[in-house]
Amino acid sequence: MSQVLHQEERRQFERLLHQQRVDRVAERLKVLEAFLASEEHVSAEDWQRLLAQAGMELEPDFVAQTLELLTRFGLAVRRDFEGGPPRYEHHHLGEHHDHLICTGCGAICEFFDPELEALQQKVTKAQGFHPLRHMLHIYGLCQNCLGKRQPTLPLALAAPGERLRVERLAGGQNLSGQMQDLGIGLGCELEVISAGGGAMVIAVKGCRVALGRGAAQKVLVSHVNNGNGQPRG
Ligand SMILES: [Zn+2]
Ligand SMILES: [Zn+2]
Ligand SMILES: [Zn+2]
Prior knowledge:
Arc Repressor Mutant, subunit A; Dna Ligase, domain 1; SH3 type barrels; 3 domains; six-stranded antiparallel sheet; three-stranded antiparallel sheet; 12 strands; 38% helix; binds zinc ion
C-alpha cells in the first residue's frame, strides 16, 4: 500500500483520537505505525511482537484496546478464521478481497475476482436481498502443502471436508469385520465430517458414522478430488 495512503490514515486516526478524547495518543499512533508496516494478517500476539521489534514495550491490554479503536474507526478489520486467534488487517476504504486459508500450514492468501463478486450480486438480487457485506473464506491446502501430501495416509490424519477412498485396511480380520459393520469397505468413498475430540465422524454412503482414533489409524486412504456438493433438493 502506498505511503501517502498510510500517512493519511495516520492523520485520520490522530484526529479521531483527539475528537473522541482518547488518552495516550502518541503511543497509540506507534501501535498504528507498527501495524501499517506489516501487510500480514496479524493476531494481537503478532502485534505485540512487531511492537517489541520496533523497540516498544506496551501492556497487552493497551495494545488490545488500541486494536479495538482501530477496528471501530475503520483502520483495521478483524478476521475470525477457523482454528486460530482473531486476526487484524488493514482496512483501506472502498477495497475488498477474499481469502484462501491453508489448513496445513496456516498460510493466508488473498484474492479478488470481479466475476465472483458480480455473481454474488446476481445471486442476492435474484432473492430480492440487499447485500451489505460478505466474507468468503475458502479452507484447503496451499500448493506447498499439496506437494508434501502423501498419496496414501491413515484416515486419522485427514482433515474435515476431505474426500477419500479406502485403499487398505491394515488391521486384520477384526478391523475388516468392524469396518464392514460400519459400511466401510475397500474402494469406498468417505468424507471427513469432524476430526476433533475422541472419535472421527465420517460420512459413508450417505450415512454418518463415528470411528475411534485407533481404528482410523489403520484405515489407509487416498485423496479424491473435492466435488462442490449437491444443491439442496
Ligand atoms: Zn468477495
Ligand atoms: Zn500450506
Ligand atoms: Zn486479507
